[in-house]
Each structure stands twice: as C-alpha cells, then as structure tokens.
Amino acid sequence: MGEFIKGRQTADVITLEVKKGVEDLKTQNVKPKLMIVRVGERVDDLSYEKAAIKRMKSCDIGCEVTVLPGDVSQDDFIGILKAVNGDSTVHGILLFRPLPEQIDENTVKHIISPEKDIDCFNPANVAKIAEGDKTGFAPCTPTAAMEILKHNSIQLRGKKAVIIGRSLVVGKPMALLLLEEDATVTICHSKTAELAKVASEADILVAAIGRARMITEDFVKEGAVVIDVGINMDEEGNLCGDVDTERCKDKSSYITPVPAGVGSVTTAVLAKHVLKACQLIKFAQEQTI
Ligand code: NDP
Questions:
Q1: Could you state, in order of their start, the residue ranges of all structural domains in the chain?
Q2: What's the mean per-residue pLDDT of the chain?
Q3: Which atom of ligand 1 is nearest to the CA of 209?
Q4: What separation in Å is there between the alpha carbon of 104 and the centre of ligand 1?
Q5: Measured from the CA of 140, which atom of ligand 1 is nearest?
Q6: Over the stretch 213-270, which tens digit does the pLDDT of each residue have?
Q7: Other CB atoms closer than 10 Å to residue 40's CB: what's the count?
Q8: Atom from ligand 1 closest to the CA of residue 144
Q9: Residue 22 CA, ligand 1 centroid: distance in Å
Q10: Do 274 and 61 contact (CB within 8 A), yes or no?
Q11: Among 10, 33, 186, 245, which one is least packed by beta carbons within 10 Å?
C-alpha cells in the first residue's frame, strides 16, 4: 500500500528557511519584494495569486500585484513590464501565463531580466537549468516536485524516472532537474508509443499532462514513487490530478495527492526564489561598489 506524501511538511520546512533568510536580510536593511503581474481575471491565476500573497506575508516578503486588462495591447504590456523590471525595490517578478493571444510570448520573454525571473520565463534561465547553473531559476512547479522528493529522502541517483508531459513550464525542466540529480530520465508526450509500458518501467513517475485521472495502475511499476503535478476538474467539478490515486496507490510506494500535494509546495518555492533573487541582486551590487 503506497504512502501518501502531502506537500504541507515540505512547504513548512521551506517557509521556515525562507523566514530565517528574510530576517537576516532585514538586519542589513533589505526587504525582498515580489511583484505579481496578472493580465485579466482568470480563475486559476486569481487562486494562485491569493495563495502567493498569503505565503509572502507569512515569510515577511513584500508583495504587490500589477493588474492589466485582458485586452491590453502588446505595446502597453511591454511598457509596464519594463517599468516593473526596472523598479529597484522589486527583486522577483511572477508573470501569469498563458498570456492573452494579442501578446506574443517570443517578443516579450526577454523583458524580465534573468536575475528577477523567478519562475523561468526568460530563456536565459532555461539555459541555466540545462547547464546546472545554480544562479538560475527553474519554474516553481517542477522545483516543488523536486523539493518533495528531497524532503522525503527519495533516492534519485541511478533511478529510472519517466515524466509524462513536455511543456516548458513543467515537463522539460522537471527532466533537467532529475537529470541533475543523476536519475536516468525519459520524457513522454502525446505521441509516445506504448505510453503505459514506458511509464511502468519508472522508479519515479511524474505526471504533468492535464488529463483528469488518466494514469491508472497499468502505468505504475510495483513500488514506484508517483508524483502528480496535474490540476484538473473532473466531470463532477471536483479538483483532481492526472493520476487515478485510488487505482494507483496500492502499487506505488509513495504517491502525492491532489489537492494537498505538489500544488501546496509551489508558493513556498516562490518565496524561496524571491529570497534567492534578493540575495543574488544584493551580492552583485556589493561586487560593483
Ligand atoms: P501543457 O498542456 O502545456 O502540457 C501537457 C503535456 O502533456 C504535453 O507535453 C502533452 O503532449 C502531454 N499530453 C497531453 N495529453 C497526453 C496524452 N494523452 N498522453 C501523453 N501525453 C499527453 O500542460 P502543463 O505542462 O502546463 O501542465 C500540466 C499539468 O500540470 C496540468 O494539469 C496543469 O494544470 C498542471 N500544473 C500544475 C501546477 C502546480 O502548481 N501543481 C502548475 C502548472 C501546471 P504534447 O507535447 O505532445 O502535446
């Protein structure tokens, strides 16, 4: 019978570490600050925003939200994002995505400077994760999944990891982070042949698909660790993951639930990234004095 690994404990440990870091900066008259940039009123964004504000408050990190109308023009969007990026009191910027269709991500993705890009929008940070450069920022969600694995002392070195999903926000960075920890990684997607067979060879199975309860026991190796990143609504309107937890829990050794799994660690990672951004910016400023 698999053990549920909830995210709460991991989130609490990270939050405590962040609080200590923030207190330390306070003694040097520096206060980390997050700026959230939201375009429109998407329900998912509003719910994440609420959780992020609460977490920043609990860590004593400053937090503001810049809200733009859903029909904002690309030129106006660029002007405001540049102004936010140029604000020296802001250390980390979280921009909710996807952006509305009138804004071309390829045109705007370089505006947030890499050192403030705490959720990995700028390709410079994607490159840093690929290089294993610790000054970079991986997206908060796959980092949260890694924190859960680390906190629960799940061995990764030499293990077979299979990730289902290849988005830039979750699947691909998750693969790079697992590779960095010496796992042997396979990335699957909608064109993967014999998906269940490939998945069932994994010691660590990560589902980042966006399909409610698609992963059943056929995808799970006996004793595998199953990390469910998915956030979906089922036909009854209930929140659920990509994994059919009821059907998979007996075969797995550990399994993360949805809700209360990976999602509950994401804002703690966000806070950790704001602190890190602030520390790195401060360090860089000290070097130039
Ligand atoms: P995307 O839609 O960008 O990517 C989904 C991936 O799943 C794609 O690579 C796609 O393949 C693959 N896929 C879709 N259908 C299948 C299928 N039938 N078989 C195999 N692969 C399939 O989603 P995201 O990466 O942004 O998000 C993934 C999930 O994670 C979603 O449920 C999302 O809500 C959740 N999420 C959770 C967060 C959290 O904090 N917990 C934060 C961000 C996302 P292909 O590339 O071939 O199309």
A1: 29-113, 140-262
A2: 97
A3: 7
A4: 21
A5: 40
A6: 999 999 999 999 999 999 999 999 999 999 999 999 999 999 999 999 999 999 999 9
A7: 15
A8: 40
A9: 34
A10: yes
A11: 186
What is the 8-class DSSP label of residue 152? T
Q: How far is the CA of 207 from the centre of ligand 1 (A)?
A: 8
**Per-residue pLDDT at 132 exceeds 90:** yes
Q: How far is the CA of 279 from the centre of ligand 1 (A)?
A: 32
Asked whether residue 28 carries a pLDDT value surpassing 80, the answer given is yes
**Rounded to whole angstroms, what are the CA distances from 263 to 38, 88, 147, 190, 227?**
19, 30, 12, 23, 11
pLDDT at residue 115 greater than cutoff 80: yes
Ligand 1 neighbours by CB, cut-off 6 Å:
141, 164-167, 169-171, 188-192, 195, 208-211, 229-232, 262-263, 266
pLDDT one-digit tens code per residue, 179-211: 999 999 999 999 999 999 999 999 999 999 999
* Residue 254 exposure: Cα atoms within 13 Å on the Cβ side: 20
pTM of model > 0.85? yes
Residue located via tokens 């993967």: 192
Mean pLDDT, residues 50-66: 98
Q: Looking at ligand 1, which atom is closest to the CA of residue 261? A: 41
Q: Could you tell me the distance, in angstroms and rounded to a whole number, from the CA of residue 168 to the centre of ligand 1?
A: 10
Pick the CATH number of 140-262 from 3.40.50.2000, 3.30.70.20, 3.10.180.10, 3.40.50.720: 3.40.50.720
- What residue owns the CA closest to ligand 1's atom 3? 167
Q: Say if 29-113 and 140-262 have the same CATH topology.
A: yes
Alpha helix stretches (DSSP H) within the chain: 8-26, 43-59, 74-86, 105-108, 123-131, 140-151, 171-180, 195-199, 245-248, 263-288
CATH architecture label of 29-113: 3-Layer(aba) Sandwich (3.40)
